[in-house]
Amino acid sequence: MEAIRLHKVVEKDGEIVATGLPCKKGQRVELIMLIEPSTTPQQPYLTAHQLLNSELIGLWKDREDIADSGIYARQLRSGKR
Fold this sequence. Notes:
Layout: H1 48-52, H2 69-78
């Protein structure tokens, strides 16, 4: 049995369109659909006020191995440490 993997985004509720398949009229096929979990964040984003009052601001202030937290954060994002 030949397997074909397609990744599609549902554009209309309840419908998925697949074209260009190597199938002939009258040929029997089996479709198995695996629905990916939603990428919507489970928790709402913090407001600016909530962020300022969280423990995230100043998290690295007492670290002796980090002289400039801005530079350190940019290095982390770029993969250069």
